[in-house]
Amino acid sequence: MRIRFLACACILVSGFTVGCQTQGKKMDIVETAVAAGNFNTLAKALEAGDLVDALKGEGPFTVFAPTDAAFAKLPAGTLEGLLKPEKKSDLQGILKYHVVSGKVVAADVVKIDSAETLQGKKLSIKVNDGTVMVNDAKVTNTDIGCSNGVIHVIDSVLLP
Length: 160
Prior knowledge:
This protein is of the alpha+beta class. The chain is built from seven helices and ten strands.
């Protein structure tokens, strides 16, 4: 399945899409991420891991979404290796590690110290000087509403 860019009417804050809609209908997590333009690598990884349909599902889901710049910080060859068909299971595990079942908005995130991911392991959540950290990743934008959940933007790829 190919992910296609969707024309939409969006409100942009700091270059990220919030509350994106197409033809009056709120977009799902995958559509919103693709329309933002800063998650091309994540979209490519979701395709390679056959997880597009899962994140287009009913949800709700909370996704800690690494930007293209976050993926670029991975050691050389890491992403390319994970995108190979024989590494699909590993890629799926990493991607599921970025997803929490349920809709957890920023006001809730700051009240918890961990969250169980769809991968099965927990993420550590803490606030340092007003900055929310998920493991070692900094949350740079919060509460991007989608029809099936919410996206929080992070500056690093989370590795289980």
